[in-house]
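Bit of a strange request maybe. I'm writing a small parser for structure token strings and I need a real example to test against, not something I typed by hand. Could someone generate the tokens for this chain?
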Amino acid sequence: MSITQQYIKDIMITLNLYFKEVNFPLNYSNPFELIVATIISAQCSDKRVNQITKILFKRYKTIEDYANANTYEFIKCIQSAGLFTKKTKYIISTAKLITTRFDGHIPYTFKELLSLPGIGRKTANIILNKCFKIYEGIAVDTHVVRIANILDFTKHQNPIIVEKDLMAIIPKKYWNNFSFLIQNLGKTICKARNKNHLICPILQICKYYNRMQNLL
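Reply from user aminoacidic:
Good idea to test on real output. This should exercise your parser:
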């Protein structure tokens, strides 16, 4: 890949200007609520997650509330998110471990976060980024994988490999909002189907678009 730092800089500056302030799509008021929201968000739309957590966060207010939650009652609260049995198990188990192993405090190291049920690299990166301003990696979801390939940042589909590729070329000063900018682009303009090239802010920079034009 012939990716230059100027190419990356141009894309980041352009997306920052276009999207201005990046708004995180999931609602939360503390680190554990963010953990809950991100676990629920697996294969579920942001809109649906926020609808669920709006009620859930009123019912369960502390980590202890989640640790002591009745499994059946909790499932009823989140069943519209899909995969509700697995998500319920992850959330309750994580709450219990935080209260016992971490004395009720959310861990803020990558290794410790990954030791919690239901928390993978993407979720750990989001928690460290949003709650602790720690940037040890880049959160990679399906939008980031797809757009990173389009922009020639990677040639891989495996999220772990994609993250390594991105960390190798994206300057660390952009890690704090890289994923959120790329996700916004993927959700609103550069969709998997029906890409809206007419309003794409990086149209003239995009290597994918330039290749498509050369094929015409």
